[in-house]
């Protein structure tokens, strides 16, 4: 398989070089696309510098600069559209670039695609785990996923983890469907689309490690917006069943 690993970034200069080399070291078939939302810390410029100084990786590392920031989900799907239009790849991986998603798990997701699944999810629940989160964050994540499971489908346990895998056909289906919620809640919206379209989804357990460098862009406003958005997503999901 020839996967494109999509890394949405905003102020990730502490992590971006390390995560790129960590991913590329896993397999010579992996390509990386950094989607930079005009990061003021110079993330995009650093990626360009890495490419110019390392001829061995320059053809495997790509940069998509977006002038308008419209959320993590919007960045991922702009990146996937770029991959379809401009690169010779046959599947996609979305993951965070702060090492909360260990690159070693890429192979687990790709193995599921090779087994015939159309999409795959690295899942923290019920049998994976989370390390480094305070109790309040653990409770918030657990309650959010329970709410979404009750509103959409209880077949899946982790609607909010951002390490996902899509074959080419599944990615095109979601692009054709279009996303309405480009922020973090896009993870739940995307899964609702997959379920509604009866896409064959595989899951595997992972250990999620809280970031040690950089800072999360998730804030209270985003959480409040996400709550109201998931209600709208659930209503649309139920109305179209």
What does this molecule look like?
- Helices cover 44% and strands 17% of the residues.
- The strands form 2 sheets. A 7-stranded mixed beta sheet has the order 3-2-1-4-7-5-8, with helices on both faces.
- By secondary structure, the chain is an alpha/beta fold.
Features:
globular; single chain; 9 helices; alpha/beta
Question: Biggest sheet, open or closed, and with what strands and sense?
Answer: 7 strands, mixed
Name the beta content range.
15-25%
Report how far apart the termini are. 33 Å
For the largest sheet, list the strands in their spatial order: 3-2-1-4-7-5-8
Mean pLDDT: 92
Sheet/helix structural class: alpha/beta
- The geometry reads as globular
Q: How many E strands? A: 9
Total of helices: 9
Whole-angstrom Rg = 17 Å
Helix-strand topology string: EHEHHEHEHEEHEHHEEH
Q: In brief, what are we looking at here?
A:
The chain has 241 residues and is α/β, with parallel strands linked by helices. The chain contains 9 helices and 9 strands.
């Amino acid at each position: 398989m020839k996967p494109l690993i999509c890394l949405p970034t905003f102020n990730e200069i502490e992590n971006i070089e390390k995560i790129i080399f960590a991913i590329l070291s896993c397999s010579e078939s992996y390509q990386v696309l950094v989607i930079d939302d005009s990061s003021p810390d110079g993330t995009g410029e650093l990626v360009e510098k890495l490419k110019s100084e390392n001829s061995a990786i320059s053809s495997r590392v790509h940069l998509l600069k977006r002038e308008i920031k419209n959320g993590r989900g919007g960045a991922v799907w702009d990146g996937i559209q770029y991959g379809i239009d401009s690169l010779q790849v046959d599947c996609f991986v979305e993951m965070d670039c702060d090492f909360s998603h260990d690159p070693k798990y890429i192979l687990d997701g790709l193995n599921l695609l090779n087994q015939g699944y159309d999409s795959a999810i690295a899942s923290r629940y019920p049998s994976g785990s989370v390390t480094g989160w305070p109790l309040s964050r653990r409770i918030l994540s657990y309650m959010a996923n329970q709410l979404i499971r009750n509103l959409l489908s209880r077949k899946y346990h982790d609607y909010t983890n951002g390490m996902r895998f899509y074959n080419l056909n599944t990615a095109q289906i979601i692009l054709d469907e279009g996303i309405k919620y480009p922020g973090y809640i896009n993870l739940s919206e995307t899964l609702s689309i997959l379920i509604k379209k009866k896409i064959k989804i595989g899951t595997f357990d992972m250990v999620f490690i809280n970031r040690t460098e950089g800072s999360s862009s998730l804030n209270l406003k985003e959480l409040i917006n996400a709550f109201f958005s998931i209600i709208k997503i659930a209503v649309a999901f139920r109305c179209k069943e």
